[in-house]
Amino acid sequence: MKSRLALLSATALLAACSSTPPGPEQGGAPVEERSPNARDINANPPVQQVLPDRAGNPLAALKDPNSILSKRSVFFDYDSYSIKEDARGLVEAHAKFLVANPSIKMLIQGNTDERGSREYNLALGQKRSDALKKALILLGARETQIESVSLGKEKPRNEGHDESAYSENRRADMLYTGEF
Fold first, then answer.
1. Residue 171 belongs to what domain range?
2. Which of 3, 17, 81, 119 has its CA 20 to 30 A from that of 102?
3. Has residue 107 been placed in a domain?
4. Is residue 23 part of a domain?
5. Alpha-carbon distance 149 to 174, whole Å?
6. pLDDT at position 77 over 50
7. How buried is 173 (Cβ within 10 angstroms: 0-12 exposed, 13-18 middle, 19+ buried)?
8. How far is 1 from 130, CA to CA, in rounded Å?
9. 165 to each of 99, 111, 120, 123, how far by Cα in Å?
Protein backbone atom coordinates (compact mmCIF):
# COMPACT_ATOMS: atom_id res chain seq x y z
CA MET A 1 0.00 0.00 0.00
CA LYS A 2 2.82 2.37 0.88
CA SER A 3 4.59 1.65 -2.40
CA ARG A 4 1.38 2.42 -4.35
CA LEU A 5 0.98 5.69 -2.51
CA ALA A 6 4.62 6.61 -3.15
CA LEU A 7 4.24 5.74 -6.86
CA LEU A 8 1.08 7.85 -7.15
CA SER A 9 2.79 10.79 -5.42
CA ALA A 10 5.83 10.56 -7.68
CA THR A 11 3.61 10.43 -10.79
CA ALA A 12 1.62 13.45 -9.65
CA LEU A 13 4.84 15.35 -8.90
CA LEU A 14 6.30 14.58 -12.33
CA ALA A 15 3.09 15.65 -14.05
CA ALA A 16 3.17 18.95 -12.17
CA CYS A 17 6.74 19.57 -13.36
CA SER A 18 5.81 19.53 -17.03
CA SER A 19 8.42 21.17 -19.27
CA THR A 20 5.82 23.08 -21.33
CA PRO A 21 4.59 26.15 -19.45
CA PRO A 22 0.89 26.83 -19.86
CA GLY A 23 0.26 29.65 -22.33
CA PRO A 24 -2.83 31.78 -22.77
CA GLU A 25 -4.56 29.01 -24.69
CA GLN A 26 -4.33 26.72 -21.63
CA GLY A 27 -5.55 29.44 -19.28
CA GLY A 28 -2.04 30.36 -18.08
CA ALA A 29 -0.28 33.71 -18.14
CA PRO A 30 0.63 35.25 -21.52
CA VAL A 31 4.20 34.62 -22.64
CA GLU A 32 6.27 37.53 -23.89
CA GLU A 33 7.67 37.08 -27.40
CA ARG A 34 11.39 37.87 -27.45
CA SER A 35 12.36 36.88 -30.96
CA PRO A 36 14.29 39.45 -33.06
CA ASN A 37 11.19 40.05 -35.19
CA ALA A 38 8.87 40.63 -32.23
CA ARG A 39 7.60 44.21 -31.84
CA ASP A 40 6.58 45.64 -28.48
CA ILE A 41 3.40 47.60 -29.14
CA ASN A 42 4.15 49.78 -26.10
CA ALA A 43 7.67 50.67 -27.26
CA ASN A 44 8.40 54.14 -28.53
CA PRO A 45 9.12 54.45 -32.24
CA PRO A 46 12.81 54.65 -33.08
CA VAL A 47 14.34 58.10 -32.57
CA GLN A 48 15.42 59.79 -35.76
CA GLN A 49 19.08 60.71 -35.62
CA VAL A 50 19.86 64.35 -36.26
CA LEU A 51 21.87 64.43 -39.44
CA PRO A 52 25.31 66.01 -39.35
CA ASP A 53 26.21 68.96 -41.54
CA ARG A 54 28.44 68.57 -44.61
CA ALA A 55 31.52 68.46 -42.37
CA GLY A 56 30.02 65.54 -40.39
CA ASN A 57 29.12 67.59 -37.30
CA PRO A 58 25.76 66.66 -35.67
CA LEU A 59 26.10 69.74 -33.44
CA ALA A 60 25.24 71.94 -36.43
CA ALA A 61 21.54 71.18 -35.77
CA LEU A 62 21.93 72.84 -32.38
CA LYS A 63 22.77 76.17 -33.98
CA ASP A 64 19.94 76.23 -36.52
CA PRO A 65 17.63 79.06 -35.37
CA ASN A 66 14.64 77.25 -36.93
CA SER A 67 15.22 74.20 -34.72
CA ILE A 68 13.88 73.77 -31.20
CA LEU A 69 17.36 72.46 -30.35
CA SER A 70 18.74 75.99 -30.67
CA LYS A 71 16.82 76.87 -27.51
CA ARG A 72 19.01 75.87 -24.59
CA SER A 73 17.39 77.27 -21.44
CA VAL A 74 14.65 75.89 -19.22
CA PHE A 75 13.11 78.58 -16.99
CA PHE A 76 11.80 78.10 -13.46
CA ASP A 77 9.38 79.83 -11.12
CA TYR A 78 10.62 81.70 -8.06
CA ASP A 79 12.07 79.40 -5.39
CA SER A 80 11.27 76.31 -7.50
CA TYR A 81 13.11 73.56 -9.31
CA SER A 82 10.06 71.98 -10.96
CA ILE A 83 10.22 71.93 -14.73
CA LYS A 84 7.23 73.79 -16.13
CA GLU A 85 4.85 72.17 -18.61
CA ASP A 86 5.73 74.71 -21.31
CA ALA A 87 9.31 73.35 -21.36
CA ARG A 88 8.23 69.77 -22.04
CA GLY A 89 8.75 69.87 -25.82
CA LEU A 90 12.17 71.46 -25.43
CA VAL A 91 13.31 68.84 -22.91
CA GLU A 92 11.98 65.99 -25.07
CA ALA A 93 13.78 67.34 -28.17
CA HIS A 94 17.11 67.54 -26.34
CA ALA A 95 16.62 64.05 -24.88
CA LYS A 96 15.97 62.63 -28.36
CA PHE A 97 19.09 64.37 -29.64
CA LEU A 98 21.18 62.81 -26.86
CA VAL A 99 19.67 59.37 -27.47
CA ALA A 100 20.42 59.61 -31.20
CA ASN A 101 23.97 60.85 -30.55
CA PRO A 102 25.32 58.80 -27.63
CA SER A 103 28.89 60.10 -27.98
CA ILE A 104 27.81 63.70 -27.36
CA LYS A 105 27.98 65.07 -23.83
CA MET A 106 25.92 67.80 -22.15
CA LEU A 107 26.67 70.16 -19.28
CA ILE A 108 23.66 71.61 -17.46
CA GLN A 109 24.27 74.83 -15.55
CA GLY A 110 21.68 75.67 -12.90
CA ASN A 111 21.17 79.41 -12.29
CA THR A 112 19.20 81.59 -9.88
CA ASP A 113 18.32 85.24 -9.55
CA GLU A 114 20.26 87.47 -7.17
CA ARG A 115 17.88 87.10 -4.24
CA GLY A 116 18.91 84.72 -1.47
CA SER A 117 22.24 83.87 0.12
CA ARG A 118 25.14 82.45 -1.86
CA GLU A 119 24.70 79.02 -0.26
CA TYR A 120 20.95 78.98 -0.85
CA ASN A 121 21.35 79.97 -4.50
CA LEU A 122 24.07 77.38 -5.13
CA ALA A 123 21.81 74.67 -3.65
CA LEU A 124 18.77 75.83 -5.67
CA GLY A 125 20.82 76.04 -8.87
CA GLN A 126 22.01 72.46 -8.30
CA LYS A 127 18.45 71.26 -7.74
CA ARG A 128 17.41 72.91 -11.03
CA SER A 129 20.24 71.34 -13.01
CA ASP A 130 19.63 67.95 -11.37
CA ALA A 131 15.89 68.15 -12.15
CA LEU A 132 16.64 68.75 -15.83
CA LYS A 133 19.22 65.95 -15.87
CA LYS A 134 16.72 63.53 -14.33
CA ALA A 135 14.07 64.48 -16.90
CA LEU A 136 16.50 63.89 -19.78
CA ILE A 137 17.52 60.51 -18.36
CA LEU A 138 13.88 59.47 -17.89
CA LEU A 139 13.38 60.31 -21.58
CA GLY A 140 16.21 57.97 -22.61
CA ALA A 141 19.47 59.91 -22.39
CA ARG A 142 22.35 58.15 -20.67
CA GLU A 143 23.45 59.38 -17.28
CA THR A 144 27.07 59.27 -18.45
CA GLN A 145 26.26 61.86 -21.14
CA ILE A 146 25.12 64.54 -18.71
CA GLU A 147 26.85 66.53 -16.00
CA SER A 148 24.93 68.98 -13.80
CA VAL A 149 26.45 71.90 -11.93
CA SER A 150 25.23 75.01 -10.15
CA LEU A 151 26.39 78.53 -10.88
CA GLY A 152 23.95 80.05 -8.39
CA LYS A 153 23.59 83.77 -9.06
CA GLU A 154 27.08 84.14 -10.58
CA LYS A 155 26.05 84.12 -14.27
CA PRO A 156 22.98 86.33 -14.72
CA ARG A 157 21.46 86.61 -18.19
CA ASN A 158 19.90 89.95 -17.27
CA GLU A 159 21.72 92.35 -14.93
CA GLY A 160 18.49 94.15 -13.94
CA HIS A 161 16.99 94.21 -10.47
CA ASP A 162 13.29 93.68 -11.20
CA GLU A 163 10.97 90.71 -11.72
CA SER A 164 11.54 90.72 -15.48
CA ALA A 165 15.29 90.32 -14.98
CA TYR A 166 14.85 87.78 -12.20
CA SER A 167 12.63 85.57 -14.38
CA GLU A 168 15.34 85.45 -17.07
CA ASN A 169 17.96 84.44 -14.51
CA ARG A 170 15.98 81.55 -12.96
CA ARG A 171 17.05 78.92 -15.47
CA ALA A 172 19.07 75.84 -16.35
CA ASP A 173 21.25 76.18 -19.46
CA MET A 174 22.20 73.20 -21.63
CA LEU A 175 25.65 73.22 -23.21
CA TYR A 176 26.97 70.53 -25.54
CA THR A 177 30.36 69.05 -26.31
CA GLY A 178 32.66 71.80 -27.56
CA GLU A 179 30.68 74.56 -25.85
CA PHE A 180 32.13 74.08 -22.36
1. 69-180
2. 81
3. yes
4. no
5. 11
6. yes
7. buried
8. 72
9. 34, 13, 19, 20
